[in-house]
Amino acid sequence: MIPLWDEMPTKRIPVITIIFILINFLVYYYQFFMVVDTNAFINTYGLIPIELTKGIALSPNTPSPVYMTILFSMFMHGGLVHLLGNMLYLWIFGNNVEDYLGRIRFIIFYILSGIFAALGQILIAPNSNVPMIGASGAIAGVLGAYLILFPRARITTLVFFGFFIRLIKLPAIFVLGLWIIFQLFYGLSELSLSGGGAGVAWFAHIGGFIGGIALIKLFGGRKRDYYY
Q1: In the sheet that 154-161 helps form, which strands lie side by side, from edge to edge?
Q2: Superfamily classification of domain 2-219
Q3: Residue (of 190, 221, 227) closest to 102 by Cα position
Q4: Strand runs (DSSP E) across the chain, as ranges?
Q5: Which residues are catalytic?
Q6: Contact indicator for 98, 14 with CB cutoff of 8 Å
């Protein structure tokens, strides 16, 4: 099931959402086409939980202060599919959340959601030395906010029925509710097998999603009418 677009209009051009998407693509280009050693770049600027919990810099070039890797890691990706999937979700859901919050608040909201995501994974695997990269944690916060703001919004979704593929309009509460259920299922499954220190950072998604729900209630937004 892949969401493709929603039917929620915006009052303004989502400038910040577009800028975030451009930054992610530029960082990806630099990461894979400009640096000599991509793996070294990831190990230097990716978020490594043990560096924060133990104060141990695993790379001589790790930024100082080390917690800056939380910010840097939000704009790095492990591959093109990883990048495109995240940017699709950011475009579909980010523009409406930005429209609700306003541009400055949306920047703060997005960064704080990424921090919540990082904390979610660090709490589960504090001694992990595996770099955590990707915008999905911050975007999970956007999804959480969208779910609270527009639960009945119609999302045009690509749904697979065996060999058959259909476009179906589904309510956001179903699409995003199912998304977070999958994150919990896979996160708990991986936790039982590996302690949460390897593979996809499922608990970053969960932490970002919960953070987004909390933050959207805290931030409030611009007064306007929404139709869905």
Answers
A1: 2-6, 154-161, 164-171
A2: Rhomboid-like (1.20.1540.10)
A3: 221
A4: 2-6, 154-161, 164-171
A5: 136, 205
A6: yes
Give 227's pLDDT tier (boundaries 50, 70, 90). very low
Q: In angstroms, rounded to a whole number, what is the distance separating the alpha carbons of residues 130 and 121?
A: 11
- Residue 96's pLDDT is 97
Q: Rounded CA gap, 15 and 143, in Å?
A: 18
Q: How far apart are CA 123 and CA 178, in angstroms?
A: 24
Cα-based distances in Å from 45 to 42, 61, 117, 155: 5, 9, 16, 35
String of DSSP letters for 57-114: -SSTT--SSTTHHHHHHTT--SSHHHHHHHHHHHHHHHHHHHHHH-HHHHHHHHHHHH
Domain boundaries, the chain: 2-219
Average pLDDT of the residues of the chain: 90
pLDDT digit string, tens, across residues 103-136: 999 999 999 999 999 999 999 989 899 999 999 9
In our burial notation (b when 16+ CB lie closer than 10 A, e otherwise), range 74-88 reads bbbbbeeebbebbbb
pTM for this prediction: 0.91
Instruction: Name the amino acid, one letter, at 12.
Output: R
Higher pLDDT, 62 or 155: 155
Res. 192: pLDDT tops 80 = no
